[in-house]
Write the structure tokens for this entry.
Amino acid sequence: MLTPEEFVELKKSIEDGNAIDNETGQKILLTILEMDTNIVILQNALELGVQNAQEVIPAVAEKVLAMAGRTDSKSKKKAANYAADVTARYEIAIQLYLSGAAEKAQEMLAGGFSDSEEIEPTQEADNEESTN
């Protein structure tokens, strides 16, 4: 995989009009394959995290009620509503991060990027998480 330093050198070389050699081309292809594999792994992990949250949060709410000896329908309804709210906020925080990251990636692809730019959680996702 190309290191960030090698990538910067390659970018400058291409911008200067220099052709890349076969070895560099192979490194680029390997880097793309590794990045694609990492994206698939991260997408699967994110999907698993969301699915587990949808199952675990309500189950925890029910278990807490049971452990507290609360069996009345009013308490169960409040716990279910709270669990749904927490799950929704979790999903919204993820969606905000993903939309911000996608927007940042498009900006980077459209206008180039500096060596220090990274995709980080958006301000909206940070605000959403802090309200939880």
